[in-house]
TrEMBL record:
Belongs to the arrestin family. This is Arrestin C-terminal-like domain-containing protein. GO terms for biological process: protein transport. Residues 160-293 form the Arrestin C-terminal-like domain. It comes from the Eukaryota. Pfam families: Arrestin_C, Arrestin_N. GO terms for cellular component: cytoplasm.
């Protein structure tokens, strides 16, 4: 029997751009088999499109004169560097960015019925946390943002038009995972409609660009999906209220790729008892980074790496359905990437995450 295991020297398996990954592949065999080669791959990220941020192959052992490894345990060290432009892991419905080590052992030995050439694979997933410093992005992210909407109720057999005004205000529009966003909601209702509840939360919009290549043509498909990554309800008790929504462990905002983009917004939806119309919905775009804003503008410049290394790294949700449904994805199964969070989250704390 032959077993292959991958070990990384890091205890967290969380890495930053420009950092070096080191580890070892352990091969343990107690049967006489001919091993022709041993390779280690590390790669990333479908209609279908691919964009590689990291794709390196390294041969760790080649067949020798005897073309055979004797029984025993063998260790093959490896190392590589995370590129400076490597984005965060993404596990969304139709696309994902994944990072993994792949060990490929090519054998020639007794397999099933007779001696044949065959390969054994082993995968080991890891997470990448890019440095997205909110202090170095658009200064407008530090400013408060607000939006409002008016819904008119038309009275039958009357020229009267009664308004329902809803305003939402955020203290800023740049956040990190683990922060609680205070959402100020102001409602002025001059209609006969009763406000039954207010729904609020964080919405993720995913934009995908895929291509299909045939012998005579190439077709491009643009796909857009939306998810509520966090949401909650309240019963209105006054015309003005402040609701807090917790940002769960999720991929940061990602707009620099030609085939995959992640954009977030905070939304508020007012539910009324009206039969023939839905309540008004408003939203404000937000940016989710990995390095939080300074609390006071006069503070000294932040050391981004020190702050990132002190963050909590928590597992996020996996909404990717490509594996086994559309196309078999190479890589580790059921791997949950981790994301930088900046508050002490406990398992019993309510996240209101919708899978």
């Amino acid at each position: 029997m032959t077993t292959v295991e991958i070990f990384l020297d890091s205890k967290t398996n969380m890495f930053f751009p420009n950092s070096e990954i080191t580890g070892k592949i352990c091969l343990n065999t107690n049967e006489a088999e001919t091993i022709k080669k041993s390779e280690c791959y590390n790669c990333c990220l479908q209609y279908e499109s691919e964009h590689y941020y990291l794709n390196e192959n390294e041969c760790l052992w080649k067949f020798n004169e005897t073309n055979q490894l004797l029984n025993g345990e063998y260790w093959f060290p490896f190392k590589f560097v995370i590129p400076s432009n490597a984005p965060s892991n993404v596990n969304e419905e139709f696309g994902e960015i994944q990072y993994f080590i792949k060990a490929d052992i090519e054998f020639y030995g007794k397999k099933f019925w007779g001696y044949k050439k065959y390969n054994e694979f082993q995968y080991y997933g890891f997470s990448v946390c890019p440095i997205i410093n909110l202090n170095n992005l658009d200064p407008k992210l530090k400013l408060s943002a607000s939006t409002k909407i008016t819904q008119i109720e038309d009275k039958f057999f009357s020229c009267t038009k009664n308004p329902l005004n809803v305003m939402m205000t955020l203290p800023k529009s740049g956040f990190v995972c683990g922060e609680k966003i205070p959402i100020k909601i102001e409602i002025k209702n001059k209609t006969s409609m009763k406000i039954e509840s207010i729904e609020y939360g964080i919405e993720l919009k995913c934009l995908y660009v895929g291509t299909y290549e045939c012998l005579c043509f190439v077709e491009t498909l643009n796909k857009e999906t939306t998810f509520y990554v966090a949401k909650d309800f309240i019963k209105p008790e006054s015309d003005s209220t402040i609701c807090n929504i917790l940002i769960p462990p999720i991929s940061p905002t990602f707009t620099d790729c030609s085939i995959l983009k992640l954009e977030y917004s905070v939304f508020v939806k007012v539910h009324t008892n009206a039969f023939f119309q839905s309540g008004p919905i408003i939203s404000i775009p937000i940016t989710i980074g990995t390095v939080p804003m300074k609390k006071i503008e006069s503070e000294e410049p932040l050391n981004a790496m020190e702050i990132l290394e002190s963050a909590n790294f928590l597992e996020g949700s996996n909404r990717c359905k490509m594996d086994g449904k559309y196309k078999e994805i190479e890589g580790p199964k059921n791997f949950q990437p981790k994301f930088a969070c900046y508050s002490n989250l406990f398992f019993n704390e309510k996240l209101s995450v919708k899978e």
